[in-house]
Amino acid sequence: MGHTLIEKIIANHCDQEVKPGATVDMRVDVRAARDFGGANVVKNLKAAGLGVDDPAKTIFTFDCNPGGSDQGYAANQQYCREFARETGVVLRDVTQGIGTHVAMEDGWVGPGTTFVSTDSHANIMGAVGAFGQGMGDQDIAYAWSAGKVWFKVPKSAKIILKGKPGPHATAKDIVLKMLQKLGAGGLLGYAAEITGDMVAGLSLEDRVTIASMSTEMGGIISLFEPNQEVLEFCRAAGGRDFQMICADADANYDKVVEVDVEGLGPMVARPGHPDDTVALSEVAGRKVDSVFVGSCTNGRLEDLRAAAQILEGRKVAPGVVMKVVPSTRKVWQAALDEGLVKVFMDSGALVGNAGCGGCAAGQLGQNGPGEVTVSTGNRNFAGKQGKGEVYLASPETAAATALAGVICSADAIPDVPVTFEIGRVSNTATEVHKASQAAAEKPTLMKGRAWIVDVDNIDTDMIFHNRYLAITDMDQMGQYTFDNLQGWEDFATKAKPGDIVITGSNFGCGSSRQQAVDCFTSLGVQAIVATSYGSIYERNAINAGMPMLVADAVKAGLKSGDEVEVDLADGTVRWDGGEVHGDPFSEVQMQIYQRGGLLV
Length: 600
Known about the structure:
By secondary structure, this protein is of the alpha/beta class. The chain has 3 domains: 5-260, Aconitase, domain 3 (2-Layer Sandwich); 268-404, Aconitase, domain 3, CATH 3.30.499.10; 445-595, Alpha-Beta Barrel (Aconitase, domain 4). Strands 22-21-20-19-23-24-25 form a 7-stranded mixed sheet, covered by helices on one side. The chain has a 5-stranded parallel sheet with strand order 4-3-2-5-6, with helices on both faces. The longest helix is centred in the first third of the chain and has 17 residues, at 71-87. It is globular.
């Protein structure tokens, strides 16, 4: 039996049999940490007395808060700078832009290589036929020290893009259509290969846009077989002869999904859920306050060109704020040289320094309570890009909307923009109150009070919001648990040491932040039982020694307040009146748990 793309890449980086479900020690070519996770990576290394395996393959990238405008970020950045000076670890400082894009521009990655980072969108490397994975602080610390990580070989899915999109469709519209078809958990635990007649002609930028949003479908990664353009780009950037990589003809795929893009037009994801996508026509005319163009999904030069072409010679609608953030310094310079920056400035837009932009709380692009934003980012979870509403769309749709003052496609911009009415009132933010609790011990057979959180697709911003990312003291994390999950904002004030959280599918989807696990430890929560987990979250919990069981218990008749028993060894959840059987701890998981964590 032949290998799929992901299996072939992993097989070339380990000395074990590679098949879906197998746990292997995978060598990692490039290991990165960002400005919010980097400080914890260093702290983990120092606490465990570990060094750096190969500083030349190890990178800091400061892209969440490239201005150091928050004291917490500034302190973490300086802490990492000092470590880089001590060890020789490579530093791409606040001047350089989004780390994953810098890694591609600088030739660190190419077809067949492996890359890990504290960035949950590290799987963007699938655009060049490379393996990329976002991981938590302990994972990255281990990778820095050992040059490898344990990894469970995922199942492979083949996604076939069928048909020819309409003339106004972009790569962003294609990936939003994929989200509509697959949903937030449609690729949960899978490595997908994107195929179809139209795929060979997709540009590198198109591939980046599509690959960057596999996380929003629950996927490990979405991979493309490189075309000649991609291969030449990687060879020129890296100064070395990357080879073509493709799946074997007899490779086995666990599932095959066709996504019909025939005649596809502009798409929009409605606020709160990237997978809540509709044809733009369904939301056209919605009044907006702001527009954001940027992010790892749509901040490349081709994206800025597309927006500038629509804006040139025109003005952003009165009362609308447009913000543009290039992905990297090189993109910023090229936009300046081509006159794109002048187009943006003349139109009334604000151009920020290279970085993540509105997806991170530390840079321009966030919105306020009641503010309606059209964004080219990859996530619009409640609270992710601010306290307002965020619609996801392409750069073309975003630019057209900025001119129209309402959600609008590029071929329907009105001659006169829609302006605000006098007396418009904004929504106000909800104030929440939290309290810290002490941590509890972690037995292998445990009893505790159940919390039934009957919600699927609880993302890491709902668990531990990104405005708290600079917090590295675990004792301070518990008070913020679930404070961005509607209906559960007071969880931290009611939780007690020894409690057990039981929830639905795809728990912990979204970001790679370790705090979304550690906040439960801070509260003393004994264990988490979920139908399924976001892939990065599952790793983070295992590596932290946090008991997390895979079992479908949320709808089994349990009620919040019931006493429940969780057996990690056999995967059983029991209570007075019933039991359900889930997955017992794997050997690797149990070893890490018994040690008290990956780095102990």
